[in-house]
Design a protein that fits this description.
Largest sheet: 5 strands, parallel
CATH superfamily of the largest domain: NAD(P)-binding Rossmann-like Domain
Order of helices and strands: EHEHHEHHEHEEHEHHEHHHHHHH
Bound molecules: nicotinamide-adenine-dinucleotide
Number of helices: 16
CATH architecture of the largest domain: 3-Layer(aba) Sandwich
Length: about 300
């Protein structure tokens, strides 16, 4: 594995910038790009090498990493005039780390492979903290050949890289994760709402439940924020809605009913309608407060 490869990193948002910095810290040559001038300026100020001409950058890249908002953005980077198919040399490997549609991912992978460009879908869990600390959990789809070629790039950002199978299985794993997390949050909200209505102290309720069959990561890590009325993100409600929609689209395409995920999506949409899209996903508790007309939180956040 040579270290003089050129790694083009596209998408310098709250996740992408720290991820690109960790690749650079590992001693690899990274050049970063974002469509927004402001994002490029901020990345430059953070010490990253930043390119202004994306076509020229893609033309000499050996590895392209994308960390973009949603499916259409990645489609544009693969198929657009400024994209990988139009500009990359055969032999380049594209790693898409955004959370996007598993169905579209398979199509993007096939189009890339047909052009001689390797494709790996490698969405992440672990949030901004994990991105900063190089401690993300990466769910990777793609051939072993391509995953081996980019193993050092992924390792630079991750505490764990799990190889899930062929292209699309990384994104499939991510949507399963997002469906499971959202329903777990809903379960804790319902237990807390009932507990509050019955006059139970929620700190004591949480402590008791942590010792039993209702114990969960959500109860342990997000429960205190719900009880304290701390709505700060964490993982924003807008992203939770996007990911639930991706999961439900994939479910519909495969004739899989997901009644609990459909229900919790509607509750998150209610939060969006109240202008709460930037709150953390634990602030689903506010929707329950409105439904039951009582405060889960001890202090309004
Ligand atoms: P963000 O909106 O902060 O950043 C995305 C960046 O991509 C923006 O700066 C945007 O200008 C840029 N961009 C859009 N199109 C581009 C293009 N064609 N070329 C170059 N740059 C382009 O988003 P984020 O929070 O960093 O999330 C990125 C992805 O990671 C999303 O899919 C999200 O769901 C996922 N994710 C986010 C978190 C989180 O906690 N924020 C956690 C896990 C996964």
């Amino acid at each position: 594995m040579t270290t003089d490869r050129c790694i083009a990193f596209l998408g310098l948002g709250v996740m992408g910038t720290p991820m690109a910095r960790n690749i650079a810290r590992a001693g690899l040559h990274v050049e970063a790009y974002d469509v927004l001038d402001k994002a490029r300026d901020q990345a430059r100020a953070s010490g990253l090498t930043v390119a202004d001409d994306v076509r020229e950058l893609l033309g000499r890249a050996d590895v392209v990493v994308t960390m973009l908002p949603n499916t259409p953005h990645v489609e544009a980077v693969v198929h657009g005039a400024d994209g990988t198919l139009a500009n990359c040399r055969p032999g380049t490997v594209h790693i898409d780390m955004s959370s996007i549609s598993p169905v579209t991912t398979r199509e993007l992978g096939e189009a890339s492979l047909s052009a001689g460009i390797g494709y790996v879908d490698a969405p992440v869990s672990g949030g901004v903290k994990g991105a900063r600390e190089g401690a993300l959990s990466i769910m990777a789809g793609g051939s072993d050949e391509h995953l081996d070629q980019v193993a050092d790039v992924l390792d630079a950002m991750a505490a764990r890289v799990t190889r899930m199978g062929p292209i699309g299985t990384g994104q499939a794993t991510k949507v399963c994760n997002q469906v499971g997390v959202a329903i777990n949050i809903q379960a804790v909200c319902e237990a807390f709402t009932l507990g509050r209505a019955l006059g139970v102290d929620l700190d004591k309720l949480r402590e008791a439940l942590l010792g039993g069959a209702t114990s969960s990561w959500v109860l342990e890590n997000l429960g205190p924020q719900m009880i304290a009325g701390d709505d700060s993100a964490g993982f924003r409600i807008a992203l939770q809605v996007k990911d639930l929609r991706l999961g439900l689209e994939a479910a519909q395409a495969n004739n899989v009913p997901l009644p609990a995920a459909s229900g919790v999506l509607d509750m998150y949409v209610e939060a969006m309608a109240h202008g709460e899209e930037s709150n953390g996903n634990q602030a689903l508790s506010r929707v329950y407060e409105r439904l039951a007309n009582l405060q889960i939180a001890e202090t309004a956040g």
